[in-house]
Amino acid sequence: MIKADSVLVDIRKIVTPKGPAPLLKDKLAELHVMENMAIASKDGFIVWIGPEDELTSNVEVQGNWYSAGGGTVLPGFVDPHTHPVFGGNRTAEFNMRIRGKSYSEIAAAGGGILNTMKATREAEEKDLIADTWERLNTMLTEGITTIEGKSGYGLDTESEIKQLSVIEQVDKVHAIDIVPTFLGAHEYPPEYKNDHEGYIKILIEEMLPAVKESGLAKYCDIFTEEGVYSIEESRRIMRAAKDMGFELKFHADEMTDLGGGKLAAELGAVSADHLMFVSDESIKAMAKSGTAAVLLPGTSFFLMMSNYAPARKLIENGVPVALATDFNPGSSHTQSMQMIITLACLNMKMTIEEAISAATINAAYAIGLGDKAGSIEVGKWADMAIFDFKDYNELVYNWGVNHVERVIKKGSLVYIRQQNFFNTLSGPSSGKFL
Ligand code: NIG
Ligand code: FE
Question: Which atom of ligand 1 is nearest to the CA of 225?
Answer without folding.
Answer: 2
